[in-house]
Specification:
alpha+beta, five-stranded mixed beta sheet, Transposase
């Protein structure tokens, strides 16, 4: 019988490590990487043997349904493509490294490899990626009873005692540690040319509420409606008391130019030191099997790039966490459109020509989405709403058509991407904010917009809209997509 799933959250604490402990941890992470890669290699062999069998080809041609799924499940078990069969495979390997890797940690590594390979089996990915030297960034246990565990302010793992750093005034951490610890994860990050180690305690329950300056707990979000129109680089938010039009992860843009310059510098250096590895047209010559040569300056630049990318990740997550808290302070009944950001990242398939007779670029929003991570904001909101037994209300985009709908005329009018304002005759409204307003007034069936609610709240929305536009006009620079 499967275990009942309970809500959980993560508390991250910095580990105070000595130099000799860092050496031991580095060795253990590399052993974990080798076990992970060995599991992926074994699964690839088993999957290859499965695909060559006649029974697999027969079942593959069957009509999709419960019977086909049952036969596939039997084949997977027969050929060892199951999580627990991988646990048996990893057992003798772990025995060789028992001084460094315990049994439960090795099983979690095997489970992690199986979950990655399962995506390939279910056609959710094209291939699995083996981890290179230094690319294993976390290991975890199965419970806080054995293996990697937390006890009395220390993380214990096979003879290593790693103290955690908790500040005296960190009330949140002290409250969180009162909850039951499910399991412990040791994570490392490359920071300023060295690995820094952290303990991530996965705790049962919901995060404790933070205290304000008066020593009282912060209030829970009100039962109010909020509409979110999220784009590739901006987001519009409309509530009953406030509207917001802002950039997604604004602090990321400060480092984006530096990252691009270093990437170009790395490419030039690599081409200069490896001329035979490239063809005349500039593409990589795959027939050349010589080793790549990297200069000392290249390695220094690569370390700089790694640090900037880490800072970008931190800034992006911090911006999203702050914005999500702002949105939740406006209300907890949140309406958003369902969007395929992966589809927006892909290159266009068809070749098109613009009005001037020139070919349009096939590149779309890959870099922008990679930098701004709009789906991450929605994931953070979803996670925080679960703590209060709620979830995002994802409206039917095909039926709602918020960017085309006019609630005054109850009609749809397709607009071009560069048209950022809607002229109603008596006023002009920014397009993204109007879409957020319509989403806020969506019916509970998530397939229609409530016109009566729109008519009742439009004047209040209009006054809040004008205030937000005035605020944006005072800023030195705003994204072109806002149209301000």
């Amino acid at each position: 019988m499967a275990k009942a799933k309970t809500p959980s959250y993560v508390l991250t604490l910095r580990l105070k490590t000595e130099l000799y402990q860092e050496d031991i941890l580095f060795k253990r992470f590399e052993l974990a990487r080798n076990i992970h890669n060995a599991c992926l290699g074994e699964l690839s062999k088993r999957y290859g043997a499965l695909k060559q069998s006649r029974r697999y080809r027969t079942v593959y041609k069957m009509e999709k349904g419960k019977e086909r799924n049952r036969l596939f499940s039997e084949l997977n078990n027969e050929f060892g493509l199951a999580e627990y069969s991988l646990h048996e495979f990893v057992k003798p390997m772990q025995h060789q490294f028992k001084k460094n890797i315990d049994a439960f940690t090795s099983q979690k590594i095997a489970t992690r490899a199986f979950n990655a390979f399962e995506k390939l089996m279910f056609k959710q990915g094209k291939k699995v990626h083996f981890k290179k030297h230094g690319e294993m960034y976390s290991v975890e246990g199965k419970s806080n009873a054995t293996g990697i565990r937390y006890m009395d302010g220390n993380v214990l793992w096979n003879g290593l005692v790693l103290p955690t750093i908790i500040k005296k005034n960190d009330v949140y951490a002290k409250l969180a540690l009162k909850d039951k610890i499910k399991f412990v994860r040791i994570k490392r990050e490359w920071t300023k040319n060295k690995f820094v180690y952290y303990a991530q305690l996965v705790l049962e329950g919901v995060p404790p509420k933070k205290y304000n300056d008066k020593g009282m707990k912060d209030k829970s979000p009100d039962q109010k409606r909020v509409g979110i129109d999220i784009g590739t680089s901006t987001v519009a938010v409309c509530s009953e008391t406030k509207v917001i039009l802002t950039e997604l992860a604004p602090n990321v843009a400060q480092l984006d130019k530096k990252i691009r310059n270093i990437q170009r510098s790395l490419d030039r250096s690599k081409r200069a030191t490896n001329p035979l590895k490239y063809k005349e047209d500039g593409t990589i010559n795959k027939s050349n099997k010589d080793k790549w040569i990297y200069s000392k300056r290249y390695m220094k630049k690569k370390a700089q790039l790694k640090e900037l990318q880490r800072l970008n990740r931190v800034k992006r997550k911090q911006d999203h966490e702050t914005l999500s808290n702002t949105i939740l302070s406006l209300g907890n009944i949140i309406f958003v459109e369902t969007m395929s950001f992966k589809g927006l990242q892909r290159r266009a398939i068809e070749t098109t020509v613009n009005e001037k007779g020139k070919f349009n670029k096939k590149k779309r929003f890959g870099r922008t989405i990679g930098n701004r991570a709009p789906s991450m904001l929605l994931e953070i909101l979803e996670r925080k709403l679960k703590y209060i037994d709620r979830s995002l209300n994802k409206v039917n985009t095909a039926l709602i058509k918020a960017s085309q709908y006019n609630h005054f005329t109850n009609s749809y009018e397709k607009k071009r991407l560069h048209e950022r304002w809607i002229d109603f005759g008596f006023c002009k409204i920014q397009r993204d904010l109007y879409s957020a307003f319509l989403l806020m007034n969506c019916k509970n069936n998530l397939t229609e917009i409530d016109r009566d609610r729109c008519n009742q709240s439009f004047e209040q929305f209009r006054s809040m809209h004008d205030l937000e536009i005035e605020r944006l006009k005072l800023k030195e620079k705003t994204p072109v997509s806002m149209g301000v």
